[in-house]
Amino acid sequence: EPEVTQTPSHQVTQMGQEVILRCVPISNHLYFYWYRQILGQKVEFLVSFYNNEISEKSEIFDDQFSVERPDGSNFTLKIRSTKLEDSAMYFCAYWGSGDQETQYFGPGTRLLVL
Amino acid sequence: QQQVKQSPQSLIVQKGGISIINCAYENTAFDYFPWYQQFPGKGPALLIAIRPDVSEKKEGRFTISFNKSAKQFSLHIMDSQPGDSATYFCAASRAQGGSEKLVFGKGTKLTVNP
Description:
The complex is a heterodimer. Chain A contains no helices and 11 strands. Chain A is mainly β. In chain A, β4 (31-37) and β5 form a beta hairpin. The radius of gyration of chain A is 13 Å and the shape is globular. Chain B has strands at 4-7, 10-14, 19-25, 33-38, 45-50, 56-59, 62-67, 72-77, 86-92, 103-104, 108-113. In chain B, strands 2, 4, 5, 9, 10 and 11 form a 6-stranded mixed β-sheet that branches. A 5-stranded antiparallel β-sheet of chain B has the order 1-3-8-7-6, with no helix packed on it. Chain B is globular. The termini of chain B are far apart. The relative contact order of chain B is 0.34. Classes of the chains: A mainly beta, B mainly beta. Chains A and B meet through β4, β5, β9 and β10 of A and β5 and β10 of B.
């Protein structure tokens, strides 16, 4: 079982609206990531976050996107003005040791922009 | 150079058969190669991973073969079962460390017929 929960599990929004996706770690983790997966396509890296700072971001992660960890617990991805092409599954991931040291993915948030 | 190319796109295998999925990369800085399994509506889950200092790694029915000179690696699923029906993604990163993003292949949808 992943050690993060993501809320909401599904969200439908109108184009141009702001959405906030949340990732809540169960244990203390240092590295967090957001990835997205457009339906039927590969998983794409958006941004990595370490020690409350962005450590790397992709070209997808433009000015419409932001991440923060406002209360030291929740890890959020904000999309300021959603576009139709933002419709995708958004996965939070963390670096953990588990059975292996690797990135472990949360269950995802399905975002649909109408 | 950041791409990981995966084939085939889909694969149908009879129960008990061998499933083989291939991946190729160009970036010689990649140093960690995990395979993820994804069921519909779920996040990717680590299946097995390999570092380039070994040519093969086996865990139960799952084996990764790695050819460093050819920059190719493959997943073999022995005695394939209907429960193995899922989408499989190969991935690569520059290190097995929290700071490195994963670059995913496009995925292979495996169907194992009973």
